[in-house]
Amino acid sequence: MHIFPFRLLTRPALILAGLLMSAASQSALAGGPAPSSSADPAFDRYVDLKLLTQAWADRNAPLLTDLGLQLAEGERVLFRSHNRIKADQVLAMAAKAAAEKKDVKTLARLGAALESLKKAELVTQVAAAQRLSGVSRAPDKALAIPVEKLTPEEFLLIRDSLNSITAAKIAEDREMLDVIMQLTPKMTQLSEAQRKHLVKIAAEARASLPDTGSNPAAEALDRLLDMPSPRASALASNALGVSFTATHKGMRVTRTLPGGATVLGKGVRLNPGDLILRVGEWATYGTVNNLDGLVDAATRAGNATLLVYDAKTRQVKTLNLVGIEGTAGTQPTLGATNKNLPK
What three-state secondary structure class fits 64? Predict the structure, then answer.
């Protein structure tokens, strides 16, 4: 598998770029957040949802702070919150992002603004974040390698892996950290010491999060990432026997269809909550939403496998695609991106 530098707009997917995506599929599947409309015109003068979505994808604490304060101003004037996101949710995640990145300047600005807005709960949160930002971490010898001694591929993998771990921790995304811990050992481009160190950091981040529950603010911002139609719409795959939604992390199974899968082995099935990460050499996040087309393309390319995160066991597993008669021979229809698939 070859890794090449390219720009992804969804930072939580950076680790997937290195592990799930082939060079041939990068331009086809790398998609960015682009909400089709604000769905709340009264707030358009106060906040740009596209910019907010980008700021969240990048975990950009200063910009999240700016946009959260703009939302707060809109709420003050209109005496209500935006119908998709609240100012407090954005400001809370700005504080978490700033704390994880030790951005003391943003934390100080955020604290002063929240004091002025009399948001006591968030003021307390920022104070805690300021204490966290003061905690230093000793460098690990496993990563203490001069940049000039790293190949571009190694440098990108290490950088993007660390960014992905930080992004997942900020969002309290236990699922993504599980995926990172299980796929990082497959990064054969890195040394064993480097791989072990990345797994250690991811495991520490995972252990710092609660085992249950989720962060409502992070969930609200994630919904913005998945807002554009048809990515967030209910879709179906007859080949795999499931309905699913296309998200910024992959294709999420929502229910099983009558009759079951036609391309999975006997007794093998996908379950609601499972996250399909890759079909053959194609990662499933981005603008692609035709799962049957991907199954067909993977089969014709000679890599008939499915990489899935099992929601119940929290394990990443590889499934073999069999019984391909129902899909072979058809041209996948993937919107504007299908021209980049193998012929």
Answer: helix
